[in-house]
Amino acid sequence: MKLEIYKYNPDVDNSASYVYVNIDYKDKMTVLEAIQFAHEKTPIHFDYSCHGRACGRCSVVYDGTPVLACITPITDGDHTIEPMKGHTVLRDLIIDKSEAHADLSQRYRRTRAVNLTEEQIETIYDTSVAEQISAIEWCTRCMMCTAMCPAYKANPSTYVGPAAMLATAYRYYDPYDEGSRVNEAVQSGLWNCIMCGQCDYVCPQKEIERVSQIWKDLREAATDAGLGNES
């Protein structure tokens, strides 16, 4: 099989190029394993850690679609492997997600005027809310959903993308959070999402139901608060 792999070193290269590497196909081979075999023939900079959809570090674009390389099977034939779009390329397939992760960390941070009391901490809250919070915690911040999002790619200034919206939703469900999360969601472009479901399609964490559940909950809350799409 032949791999066409993106190569770019910003310290020395004026533009990106591609290297073509022939490797032997093996049954049940993953994209990550293919990259590793290619690396044995020609140096390729890439990132990975967990081998099991837990860290999100191995996200790449495989034949035009964002994937986690560690869990994505590769077929025998010719394939193109590139870095995730929308981020600065540090070297070859390694990208800088620090700016996106900083924004996510800010959104995930709980907002409260005073610390929780012991009694509040021990309070059991609504089961359905707990289920949504638990589902969102599967997110590895791989940013594949945002890379796939047509609304974000069309105009990132009017929609923050699924990853950031998910972080806002996490605290919206949090009964202990005192932030204006519905307003934050609307200001972040909640109504500019076209509900196409590409984020859910590409996400390796199938426990998260953005379009069918989470975005629906946020939009209903926004409408109830007088922040509907017609506002």
TrEMBL record:
<dbReference type="Pfam" id="PF13085">
    <property type="entry name" value="Fer2_3"/>
</dbReference>
<dbReference type="GO" id="GO:0051537">
    <property type="term" value="F:2 iron, 2 sulfur cluster binding"/>
</dbReference>
<keyword id="KW-0411">Iron-sulfur</keyword>
<dbReference type="InterPro" id="IPR017900">
    <property type="entry name" value="4Fe4S_Fe_S_CS"/>
</dbReference>
<dbReference type="GO" id="GO:0051539">
    <property type="term" value="F:4 iron, 4 sulfur cluster binding"/>
</dbReference>
<comment type="similarity">
    <text>Belongs to the succinate dehydrogenase/fumarate reductase iron-sulfur protein family.</text>
</comment>
<keyword id="KW-0004">4Fe-4S</keyword>
<dbReference type="InterPro" id="IPR036010">
    <property type="entry name" value="2Fe-2S_ferredoxin-like_sf"/>
</dbReference>
<dbReference type="InterPro" id="IPR050573">
    <property type="entry name" value="SDH/FRD_Iron-Sulfur"/>
</dbReference>
<dbReference type="GO" id="GO:0009055">
    <property type="term" value="F:electron transfer activity"/>
</dbReference>
<keyword id="KW-0479">Metal-binding</keyword>
<feature type="domain" description="4Fe-4S ferredoxin-type">
    <location>
        <begin position="129"/>
        <end position="159"/>
    </location>
</feature>
<feature type="domain" description="2Fe-2S ferredoxin-type">
    <location>
        <begin position="1"/>
        <end position="87"/>
    </location>
</feature>
<dbReference type="InterPro" id="IPR009051">
    <property type="entry name" value="Helical_ferredxn"/>
</dbReference>
<comment type="pathway">
    <text>Carbohydrate metabolism; tricarboxylic acid cycle; fumarate from succinate (bacterial route): step 1/1.</text>
</comment>
<dbReference type="InterPro" id="IPR025192">
    <property type="entry name" value="Succ_DH/fum_Rdtase_N"/>
</dbReference>
<keyword id="KW-0816">Tricarboxylic acid cycle</keyword>
<dbReference type="InterPro" id="IPR004489">
    <property type="entry name" value="Succ_DH/fum_Rdtase_Fe-S"/>
</dbReference>
<keyword id="KW-0003">3Fe-4S</keyword>
<protein>
    <recommendedName>
        <fullName>Fumarate reductase iron-sulfur subunit</fullName>
        <ecNumber>1.3.5.1</ecNumber>
    </recommendedName>
</protein>
<dbReference type="GO" id="GO:0022904">
    <property type="term" value="P:respiratory electron transport chain"/>
</dbReference>
<dbReference type="GO" id="GO:0008177">
    <property type="term" value="F:succinate dehydrogenase (quinone) activity"/>
</dbReference>
<feature type="domain" description="4Fe-4S ferredoxin-type">
    <location>
        <begin position="182"/>
        <end position="213"/>
    </location>
</feature>
<dbReference type="GO" id="GO:0046872">
    <property type="term" value="F:metal ion binding"/>
</dbReference>
<dbReference type="GO" id="GO:0006099">
    <property type="term" value="P:tricarboxylic acid cycle"/>
</dbReference>
<dbReference type="InterPro" id="IPR012675">
    <property type="entry name" value="Beta-grasp_dom_sf"/>
</dbReference>
<dbReference type="GO" id="GO:0051538">
    <property type="term" value="F:3 iron, 4 sulfur cluster binding"/>
</dbReference>
<dbReference type="InterPro" id="IPR017896">
    <property type="entry name" value="4Fe4S_Fe-S-bd"/>
</dbReference>
<keyword id="KW-0408">Iron</keyword>
<dbReference type="InterPro" id="IPR001041">
    <property type="entry name" value="2Fe-2S_ferredoxin-type"/>
</dbReference>
<dbReference type="Pfam" id="PF13183">
    <property type="entry name" value="Fer4_8"/>
</dbReference>
<keyword id="KW-0560">Oxidoreductase</keyword>
<keyword id="KW-0001">2Fe-2S</keyword>
